[in-house]
Amino acid sequence: MVVKVYGPHSASAKRVLVCLLEKEVEFEVVPVDLLKGEHKGPEFLKLQPFGAVPVIQDGDYTLYESRAIMRYYADKYRSQGIELVGRTPEERGVVEQWLEVEAHNFNPPANDLAVHVLFAPFFGITPDPKLIEESEAKLLKVLDVYEERLSKSKYLGGDFFSLADISHLPLTYFIVNKMNKEYLIRERKHVSGWWDDISSRPSWKKVIELYLPPI
Ligand SMILES: N[C@@H](CCC(=O)N[C@@H](CS)C(=O)NCC(=O)O)C(=O)O
């Protein structure tokens, strides 16, 4: 049974797609047009009651929340593809810690920036300059902590590429390539080197090539 990934062009789905490629899991994609509101239609709400992508269907198993989906596949295909969560409880603890940091410290300001700098016109939102300024200030502080971490560790979760790194790919890609805010990354030597490393992985290059959003 081939895994179905709904909403492949969204930022959050890209975490899932990279994870599936790294785990060598076959998948097919089901486009969901957010601009037309397809994610709020009755059929889609049966899959994801909050009306957001991504969702996966694996046979009769359905799952949403991109980080939960990544954890599910990293666990289900433990011995297939590369190890993405660590081999010992201690390694797994550190990967989980940085996944949580991504979700709770990095993602909120980075997502607010993406929405207000990039996507506002598409979703009929008026960009809020104060929110943009505050989000950038918050992100700077978060990235200073990352700089310290990455001066001592090759990747966020340890000396191996993991879900913690994957989780940062979509929004960091926007920061570097779409928002004119590359300096946030480039002004930090170790964050910059880490970004060059993780963004040059074939899995990420493939996802960007195939599922880049239309802006
Ligand atoms: N925490 C969720 C966030 C999902 C999310 O916000 N998806 C966005 C696309 S990246 C979406 O569907 N936005 C439309 C909406 O929420 O109305 C996850 O990681 O899967």
UniProtKB/TrEMBL annotation:
Keywords: Cytoplasm, Detoxification, Transferase. Residues 1-81 form the GST N-terminal domain. It catalyses: RX + glutathione = an S-substituted glutathione + a halide anion + H(+). One of its GO terms (molecular function) is glutathione transferase activity. Coiled coil: none annotated. Residues 88-215 form the GST C-terminal domain. GO terms for cellular component: cytosol. Its main location: cytoplasm. Its EC number is 2.5.1.18. SUPFAM superfamilies: GST C-terminal domain-like (SSF47616), Thioredoxin-like (SSF52833). Gene3D superfamilies: 1.20.1050.10, Glutaredoxin (3.40.30.10). It is found in: Cytoplasm, Cytosol. Belongs to the GST superfamily. Phi family. This is glutathione transferase. It comes from Phaseolus vulgaris (Kidney bean). The lineage of its organism: Eukaryota, Viridiplantae, Streptophyta, Embryophyta, Tracheophyta.
